[in-house]
């Protein structure tokens, strides 16, 4: 494949942070040493257990280029997003003598890139890092935009930092080894991008939901690139979530509460799916969203096999958790809802009866 088949999407550059590129294509891992650059002497490749071979191959490539490269293996999925695992990574960096010009590479799903970015943000108060996302979700969302973090017992992503990567390499070939459950989970964030900003995404998924569930589908690259463009545009204008960036949290207020309630055993995308149906119902019941667009949420999410409901008896616990959502201000709960297709807005302090009624619509 020639370089012309690589799509390059720029992020940042106008809001006070350094611009970087998201590369999308195939056989792109050869780009990594160029991104690491000549100033680095050491590189740490943080990878999950499931990608031990990929992690070692990248480490070896970097070692062949003359870097002192180490591989740091972390647990799969959310088990990596803990203070203990971050401390394990800091220890590896310390023992390798990592300095401020050295570089971290996070290769894996969103859990790994969130952790790797957080380790990069905190080591020596910030070193460069490069994201090599290997799931749909990480390519279209987690690896782009510089939100890094870990979970605590009290909730999802409660500790973290805004620390953009120096570059993102989305090698679509990585998706071939992803299980269908994880592949479909990523579609939730793609569909989110469709509802908040780019309805063509919804048209493409609806045209053939079965094809959307596999990396071999005819629209895979377009769906991924469109979603990255949505994210890139938003975070380029509002890196630190002063306002606009909150729209990327559509469906996440309830989703994060479900993830915590499930002790992080549910995939993020599955929780976001239920959370978006809830947000659509909230919008509808608050008199903001038309019935057709609200119903479209259920239809498109169900068509790709994402869940629409959660346990009805859990509402009191979920409500309690939602109170520490990052969008809350004091005692004021805030949700992203839609005023219409691709018209996201903030709903502040909804009537508790409306909240309960919206939850009734997703209760199993
Ligand atoms: N920082 C952000 O802006 C942002 C945005 C969205 C989501 N997130 C976070 O991303 C996380 C979810 O990410 P995810 O859905 O990628 O899940 P994940 O990182 O948990 O990965 C899912 C599983 O797939 C495995 N895996 C990864 N790539 C693989 C591959 N190519 N082949 C086979 N197995 C592979 C992983 O080891 C893991 O077991 C959540 O923690 C969520 O909070 C962050
Ligand atoms: O990038 C953002 O901003 C998002 O909200 C994207 C979300 O999909 C993502 O799950 C993010 O990690 C949520 O962030 P949080 O600040 O609500 O923890
Ligand atoms: Zn998300």
Description:
Strand 5 (103-108), helix 4 and strand 6 form a beta-alpha-beta unit. This protein has helices at residues 32-36, 52-64, 83-96, 110-122, 136-142, 180-196, 200-207, 209-212, 220-237, 252-261, 268-285, 291-303, 315-322, 352-360; strands at 7-11, 20-25, 42-48, 68-74, 103-108, 128-133, 147-152, 155-162, 167-171, 334-338, 344-348. The longest helix is centred in the middle third of the chain and has 18 residues, at 220-237. The model has no long low-confidence stretch (mean pLDDT 96). The chain has 14 helices and 11 strands. The strands form 3 sheets. A 7-stranded mixed sheet has the order 1-2-9-6-5-3-4, with helices on both faces. Strands 7-8 form a two-stranded antiparallel ribbon. The chain has a two-stranded antiparallel ribbon with strand order 10-11. The protein starts with 6 loop residues before the first strand and ends with a helix. Helix 5 packs parallel to helix 6 (180-196) and helix 10 packs across helix 11. With 364 residues, it is α/β, with parallel strands linked by helices. The radius of gyration is 20 Å and the shape is globular. Bound molecules: nicotinamide-adenine-dinucleotide, the ligand O=C(O)C(=O)C[C@@H](O)[C@H](O)[C@H](O)COP(=O)(O)O and zinc ion (ZN). The site of zinc ion has 5 residues, from helix 11. Residues 72-181 form the 3-dehydroquinate synthase N-terminal domain. InterPro entries: Dehydroquinate_synthase, DHQ_synth_AroB, DHQ_synth_fam, DHQS/DOIS_N, DHQS_C. It catalyses: 7-phospho-2-dehydro-3-deoxy-D-arabino-heptonate = 3-dehydroquinate + phosphate. NAD(+) binds at residues 110-114, 134-135, 147, 156. Keywords: Amino-acid biosynthesis, Aromatic amino acid biosynthesis, Cobalt, Cytoplasm, Lyase, Metal-binding, NAD, Nucleotide-binding, Zinc.
